[in-house]
Amino acid sequence: MYEATLTLVEPNLMLTLFGPRDQHLRAIRDALGVRITHRDGQIHVGGEEQAVTRATEVLERLKALAERKGALAADDVARLLSPVSADEAAALDEVIEVINASRKIRPRTLGQARYVAMIRERDIVLAIGPAGTGKTYLAVASAVEALKRRAVRKIVLVRPAVEAGESLGFLPGDLQAKINPYLRPLLDALHEMIDHDQIKLLMEQDVIEVIPLAYMRGRTLNEAFIILDEAQNTTVAQMKMFLTRMGESSKIVIAGDVTQVDLPKPTRSGLLDALTRLEHIEGIGITRLHNSDIVRHRLVQEIVQAYDDEHAGPRRKSR
Fold it and tell me: What digits encode the pLDDT tens for the residues 268-317?
């Protein structure tokens, strides 16, 4: 029998780490066949040496995640218990090289690492996940890296201008001013990766375009890295139109959150349609990011979970 001990410096961390009715501990015990007990602020793990080492590693990573986010979900435990290949472990440490050399961008979760790896391997990638999982940010970073390495000649960032409870007609200014709020998140991501003056120059040279989806009709884009953001708000016809803009030596990333569809009912989301229509085509990758991949403020994960869980009762406040 081999044993290891993990010390909890923060007593309140115990409830978060163990989960409701010790469900997180039970998941680790069942998956690895170890014995886990708690006494006087210490967690004792016993069993076969390899299993104890793995369980201790999982508990240490869960502890770090709980300290950072303030909450743990069953998905967090399941993902840390899943086998991690050497390539995936290395991907977590791999920097995405953007033009702003002082900015170091890397995946912060295993799900994000798999997403970045898929973007590099496939010509078309569909990324599904809740807010804050880095769907758009990592896609833009990968596009800037491809431009820096001269793998593409052009970056095209696209969004559908769908009204989410507000009317474009009441916004001030000309058409460009009206659509600018829809494109702002893409520009914000760019400004973290490329200096302001350089972005301005690249946009003047037509190397970077940030445009509404409607402006894509009739075009063919060769040697381009094309990103469609908020793709859940495309119709089936719009999604087909967008996908068929792809030219030679181009790459497409489509990102969206299928729980945030703003299309009028009963219009079917082009993203939901594409997920089933395209899943068996070779060269197209589909990645699903989860609540455990959220890397914004720690409360965002709890907020998303609260809205996802239709039957959730009052949640315990994180301290």
Answer: 999 999 999 999 999 999 999 987 777 776 576 677 777 776 544 444 44
Q: Which two tokens stand for residue 125?
A: 């990638």
The whole-angstrom separation of Cα 57 and Cα 60 is 5
Contact 124, 246 (CB under 8 A): yes
**Do you know the residue count of the chain?**
319
Contacts of 73 (CB under 8 A, 6+ apart): 291, 292, 301, 305
3 state DSSP class of 5:
strand
Give the distance, in angstroms, between the CA of residue 134 and the centroid of all CA atoms in the same chain.
Answer: 4
**Stretch (H or E) spanning 212:** strand 208-212
Alpha-carbon 200 to chain mean position: 27
> String of b and e for 67-97 (b: at least 16 CB within 10 Å)?
eebbbbbeebbebbbeeeeeeeeebbeeebb
pTM recorded for the entire structure: 0.70
